Amino acid sequence: MNNKTDIDIDIVIRYLEDPDNEQHKQALNDWIQADTGNLDIFLDMKAMWQGDALPTASPYDIQAQWDQLNAVLDATPATTGTAPQQGRIVPLTRKYWWAAAAAVVAIALTWTWLGPGSYQTFATATQQDSLLLPDGSKVYLNAHTSIRYARRFGQTNRNIRIDKGEAFFDVTRNETVPFIVNAPEVEVQVLGTAFNVKAASSGVKVFVQSGKVSAAYKGTEKKVILTPGVEASLQHNGTNIDTQLHKKSNNILAWKTRCLTFDDTPLAEVATSLADFYGVEISLSNPALSDKKLLATFRNMPLDEVLDIMRKTLQINITHKNNLVEIY
């Protein structure tokens, strides 16, 4: 193999083989800082390197993949190297075992399992996915989203963290153990409800579909109680909580339903929804068009088809090139 997985594995292996090497330390630190999930990978690899058993809480049959790899490696003569500081001979074939294991997991699973001893991390790439939590709650993850929760989730607490991206939570009611979502600088607490959390670079947005949700800045008394249809916006390094009541035809959950609904919606709002849904930049170069209203429903349609319908319905000009859509 000769890909990013190899490079990542090599960084950790070099450090484990020579932990006193300052260059290896710096490379490892830079790699961990680049992605919160990399710390999870390092902790698991370190535990395996030292001979510790990894937890087996993954919902996938990863052990079967390990067994297949071990069968191949057992048939290959092992080469031994110098002993690490623990005083044991460590086969250099560990490096190739981990590289092969990482490749199998990356190819076979939509989810990435990166759990260290105390919690599990799940991440999506370009696809959406869903997860059933131990307490029966369901989580639907948008693309490019990463969450983590304790392996003992549901027993003493129901704390979950969203590091980045967007997730919809359908929470099983349990009045004795509150369901808490931690996002950067923000904490959301519920008993049983359905709500959406979006952790973006500018801040966190919380939208409630049913039930009641408390959204608060961590470490402060500043919080708000949200009811169905209400969305709260909490900015990074901010103190104010802005709330907005949305009508039923809002498109906040369009990423999950795959349906965009516009009910006499101003073109400026349409542009915002389309940009978020399709991951493009939309420029409304003629401000006079902002108040034009669109009445339409698009069910999982390609962007160019949507733009063509808008062009004909509203009698406007639209160009789409690469990642930029211009309306004029």
UniProtKB/TrEMBL annotation:
It comes from the Bacteria. InterPro entries: FecR (IPR006860), FecR_C (IPR032508), Ferrdict_sens_TM (IPR012373). The keyword Isomerase does not apply. Keywords: Membrane, Transmembrane, Transmembrane helix. Residues 260-326 form the Protein FecR C-terminal domain. Residues 124-213 form the FecR protein domain. Pfam families: FecR (PF04773), FecR_C (PF16344). The chain crosses the membrane at residues 96-114. This is FecR domain-containing protein. It comes from Chitinophaga nivalis.
